[in-house]
Amino acid sequence: MGSTLFRKVWDLHTVRRLPTGQTQLLIGLHLVHEVTSPQAFDMLRLRGQRVAFPDRTFATVDHIIPTDGQPRPFADGMAEQMLTALERNCREFGIPLFGLESGDQGIVHVIGPELGLTQPGMTIACGDSHTSTHGAFGAVAFGIGTSQVRDVLASQCLAMDPLKVRRISVGGALAPGVYAKDVILAIIRTLGVQGGAGFAYEYAGPVVGRMTMDERMTLCNMSIEGGARAGYVNPDDTTVAYLRARRFAPAGDAFERAAAWWRSLASDPDAAYDDEIDVDAGALGPMVTWGTNPGQSVGVGERLPAPADAAGAEREALADALAYMGLEGGGPIAGTRVDVAFIGSCTNGRLSDLQEAASVVRGRRIATHVRGLVVPGSKRVRDAAEREGLHEVFREAGFEWRQAGCSMCLAMNPDRLEGREVCASSSNRNFKGRQGSPAGRTLLMSPAMVAAAAVAGEVTDVRPLLPGPEGE
Ligand code: SF4
Q1: DSSP 3-state assignment of 277?
Q2: Is ligand 1 within 6 A of the CB of residue 65?
Q3: 94 and 172 together in one domain
Q4: CA distance 394 to 447
Q5: Ligand 1 atom closest to Cα of 412?
Q6: What pLDDT does 472 receive?
Q7: Which terminus of the chain faces fewer neighbouring Cβ atoms within 10 Å, N or C?
Q8: Which of 34, 61, 107 has most ligand 1 atoms within 8 Å of its beta carbon, as the pocket-test mutant?
């Protein structure tokens, strides 16, 4: 019987089995940012400890930084304090920091892959739920809490319960206007937001095999929204091609040796899984969330669920979500007015996401009542987009072109919804109050769909707006 990639990587990183039944797991790469690390560094200081492997630890700043101008000190005193603390901690503990002036700053889950830090076969931890993103490379990657950040800083190890593995095979072919974001929203709708509890998701099948690394990252990024602690894709030619010549990837002969090893880590054809499901993506249309968790979504042409058709707790949950969102059960999602359009985040703030969105808004204007923000996922993404002139496309359409950061995904910086504003967002969470206003409302969708909503001023099907034979 063969083995899954998850099991191979887990076994290779097992230090020992703990008396608790947990595994002491060696962490190959630890990514650090300004929000979940200050207390962890303080705990280290209190104990007189050093960072065990500073060469396996990298830091960036993403959550709290302003994106409309970054002169220091920041106007927000708390943000300034957090960045200053990170800078001091990195200096004191000998950790490389990709700061604002480095040219490499960005959202931690965007810069890790683009710098080649993220590699197949690694165990990767970061004090952020969306660390699952890095699984796109065939790494076992998961988010951790602040006390675990301390543990990894001090020992490079974590005490972990092993996960079961569910293989999700995505078949068919994606229609134009349908993206990885739609696939993962459909998967979460099918399996539920808690459906992945205790599992790592292995994404496989022809659709995933044809996906670019950017698309695979979008898929793995939202594993956590389906309750899975981790998600991954087996390394293949696409993975190897992406990593070649990246700054922290091996070079020359070492790269070829690494590539051969990476490929060998892919799940064996006769591997046993704890669960397997098939998803047909051929019939999928653009998806939009209508509720207050990422599992509450519909195709843009579908009608919203009606509480009357559900029973018990489900009925109550539907009614509550619809009331919060101000939507009518059984009504259409298309035509829902939006106030803000946000393109960015670690889910969909990469160059290809900006290219897709720009192709929709090129030569058009966003609706006069819509505030549009484009926030690249990293400085490198921003620079690459500007080399292609995408910033001009967005600006001419009426969008604000911002500096790299998390921005309105979480609104820990000044980019926030106000009152009951509705935001078409390419991010990953639509919880109540997620985007900074306690009453704000979030509709998750692909970047192209956000662009279409911005132009129409309401939720609309992007497909007629696509360039080429499918659209105008
Ligand atoms: S973009 Fe959003 S989800 Fe991603 S790391 Fe930043 S705050 Fe977290």
Answers
A1: strand
A2: no
A3: no
A4: 13
A5: 7
A6: 55
A7: N
A8: 107
